[in-house]
Amino acid sequence: MSILIPPHIEIRDEIRTVGITRSVTMDQIAEVADSIPGVEGWLAEQGAAPAGPPFFRYHVLDMAGQSLVEAGFPVPADTQLATDGGEVALGTIPAGRYAVVVHRCRPDELYQATADLLTWAEGEGLAWDAWETPEGHAWRGRLENYFTDPEEEPDLSRWETELAFRLAD
Question: Measured between alpha carbons, how far is 23 from 26 in angstroms, rounded to an integer?
Fold first, then answer.
């Protein structure tokens, strides 16, 4: 695992998204990630294209139970999309301050990359835009943005991923 861009704070605008949200256990996370090509196909059917790399978003995180996660793409704010009540839904990633780091590593090494980002933020005295719920730890913005296309780079150790976690106001 190598750090490509060290931990830092960024101010981000709100981002319009399309994605699929599911409640899964941690060992089922790959099933949600596997829905990303379907979301991209849905966008193509709408005559639209993603405005950036695919993302994976944790809405509610419970390492031992069910987590509410979303896989999708950012889309331009002015794109006209017609949802049909199916699994693909429109959404937004909120604006605000984010703690961000970019790594080159295998997806299964992101747990350590996340721990490193959390440790850095704690050392900086930063607070997350997150809260406890009966279902688990809820986040307004906890993202993994995948910069590497698996079809173009089959070597998982060369995948570039950005972790971006929204900070409390």
Answer: 10
pTM: 0.92
Report CA-CA distances (Å) from 18 to 25, 109, 147, 152: 22, 26, 17, 23
Pairing of strands 136-139, 130-133: antiparallel
- Sorted by where each starts, the structural domains of the chain and their CATH numbers stand as 2-166 (3.20.80.10)
Which tokens sit at 5? Answer: 């861009």
Q: What is the pLDDT of residues 117-167, one digit of tens each?
A: 999 999 999 999 999 999 999 999 999 999 998 888 999 899 999 999 999
* DSSP, res 104: E
Q: Which residues have a Cβ under 8 Å from the Cβ of 116 and sit 6 or more positions away?
A: 7, 101
